[in-house]
């Protein structure tokens, strides 16, 4: 039987390896196509694929098993759970792959894109640019079709030349910038705040006007400190929570 082939990852030795591997594998699982096999490679094969020990791989797989994304059967192997919940709480631990995993596993509809003036609140991020390329998407649960969040991105125009609209219906913007455009992503700064749903968010997410939502802003930088992307995402407050883990070592 053919096994599912996960994406590769460049490991950051400053972060727990099991966490990085679990988030990368999670993103691969949630972003898989319907044609992909549900059977995962063996622990040993996955450990070799990611360049980690079998013990580290087991810890990563346990994280996904606890989340309900995979099931493990003695002697039969490990399998992706086809009906796994795809709106689990997001755990952020300083990994770009955590951001990719956060945004994976949903269908996305591109509501619009094009050049637009940089909003005043983002002028500090693009001081030399009067305009940026904008993308507006609505994400929905694959199984129920229920809208879960809508996102707007402001991208440097020169990066947008390599982005195809169909890429954004398949993958998160962070993955498109890193893996399709080849952007030099060094860090992402996240801010999450509680807000009340405005008329547009209420309509798109099918929630009552002024109901609680999570307002997320993510600013992506390259290694020279230049801003590549500003993302603003409105999440339904009844579907998402954020857990931030601080490593004290």
Give the secondary structure arrangement, pairings included.
Layout: H1 17-30, H2 43-50, H3 54-67, E1 70-73, E2 77-80, E3 90-92, H4 96-103, E4 106-117, E5 131-141, E6 147-155, H5 157-160, H6 165-170, H7 173-181, E7 187-196, H8 199-205, E8 212-221, E9 227-236, E10 242-244
Question: Which keywords apply here?
Answer:
249 residues; alpha+beta; Arc Repressor Mutant, subunit A; Chorismate lyase; 2 domains; 6-stranded antiparallel sheet; two-stranded antiparallel ribbon
Q: Which shape, going by the Cα principal axes? A: globular
Which H/E pattern describes the elements? Answer: HHHEEEHEEEHHHEHEEE
Mean pLDDT: 84
CATH homologous superfamily assignment of the largest domain: Chorismate lyase-like
CATH architecture of the largest domain: 3-Layer(aba) Sandwich
Poorly predicted tracts of residues: none
Radius of gyration: 18 Å
Q: How many β-strands, per DSSP?
A: 10
- In percent, how helical is the residue content? 25-40%
The total of helices stands at 8
CATH topology of the largest domain: Chorismate lyase
């Amino acid at each position: 039987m053919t096994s599912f082939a996960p994406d590769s990852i460049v490991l950051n030795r400053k972060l727990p390896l099991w966490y990085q591997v679990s988030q990368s594998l999670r993103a691969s699982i949630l972003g898989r196509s319907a044609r992909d096999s549900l059977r995962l490679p063996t622990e040993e094969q996955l450990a070799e694929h990611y360049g980690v020990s079998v013990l580290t791989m087991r810890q990563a797989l346990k994280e996904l098993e606890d989340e309900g994304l995979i099931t493990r059967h003695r002697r039969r192997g490990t399998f992706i759970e086809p009906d796994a919940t795809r709106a689990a709480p997001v755990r952020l631990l300083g990994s770009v792959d955590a951001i990719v995993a956060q945004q994976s596993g949903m269908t996305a509809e591109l509501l619009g894109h094009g050049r637009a003036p940089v909003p005043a609140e983002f002028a500090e991020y693009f001081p030399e640019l009067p305009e940026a390329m904008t993308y507006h998407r609505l994400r929905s649960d694959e199984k129920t079709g229920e809208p879960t969040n809508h996102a707007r991105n402001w991208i440097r125009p020169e990066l947008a030349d390599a982005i195809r609209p169909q890429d954004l219906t398949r993958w998160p913007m962070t993955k498109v910038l890193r893996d399709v455009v080849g952007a030099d992503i060094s860090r992402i700064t996240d801010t999450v705040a509680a807000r009340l749903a405005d008329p547009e968010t209420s309509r798109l997410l099918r929630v009552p006007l002024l109901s609680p939502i999570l307002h997320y802003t993510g600013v992506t930088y390259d290694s020279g400190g230049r801003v590549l992307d500003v993302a603003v995402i409105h999440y339904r407050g009844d579907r998402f929570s954020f857990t931030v883990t601080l490593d004290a070592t």
